[in-house]
Amino acid sequence: MPERLSQYVQRDSPLHSLNPLTKLLITFGFILISFLSPWYWTAVVLIFAGIIPYSFIAKVQREYFWTALRLLAPAVGFIFIMQSLFLPIGTVELFRWWIFHPSPESLAQGFLTAARIYVMISAFMLFLLTTHPNELMSDLTRRGLPGQFAYVIVSTLQIIPQMQAKAQTIIAAQRSRGLDTEGSYLKRIGALLPLAGPLVFGSLVEVEERAIAIEARGFTSTRQKTFLYEIKDTQTDKIIRAILIILVVLTLLVKIWL
Questions:
Q1: Sequence-ordered list of residues with C-beta below 8 angstroms from that of 67, at least 6 positions apart, any chain
Q2: What are the residues whose beta carbons fall under 8 Å from the beta carbon of 22, sequence distance 6 or more?
Q3: 137 exposure class (CB count in 10 Å sphere: 0-12, 13-18, 19+)
Q4: What pTM was estimated for this model as a whole?
Q5: Which contacts qualify for 188-192: CB closer than 8 Å, 24 or more apart?
Q6: pLDDT band for position 5 (cuts 50, 70, 90)
Q7: Average pLDDT score over residue span 213-242
Q8: What are the DSSP E strand ranges found in the chain?
């Protein structure tokens, strides 16, 4: 099985065919509207009217909901509980137990924070599922972004799947040498060092190898670069980007007005 270097999932969908910059602006549009809106219900509307339909239109709903159920829901639930129980706002207590005395205001603030965090992580998750890092880097570089910045962005998007693939390889190698990674809790703790050591040192070696590789390919050259694939930027992309910018500006103006 080939090593997967990104979270990208190949699908034949309208969202996959959009320009990478358009999908990046959609992501930031979700986030900015959620955080700039003065109303509590905005983030919830974005989740049910934006994020979830987005996943179905992109045909990545299975990957999205599986990740959201395993990672996103517990994290957002924890944030809501912490904000609700420990945020010292409001004068009316709903109940008092030990050091906990939540108020309607703390519950509302906890719900708002959790909903916004859910929108932010979900937006980035869907962006990673529908955008190939190479296409993003090529399009940003073609638009004039310095190659160093484009490389940093793409490397950030790829670091988690790369570390996961490398960790699985190391685990398989150590198991073949007789290391017990599925025993008791204490045995698993004892196996952390043999697993973490090669992972950390291997990542450091990989950084040096990447630096040599990109230098050998003329990464820092000032000459005009050509691209193997032409990234489409249709009129639909331009209209979507214009609408997103208008919506974000309107949200900001409403927040200032209110």
A1: 125
A2: 237, 240, 241
A3: buried
A4: 0.74
A5: none
A6: very low
A7: 75
A8: none
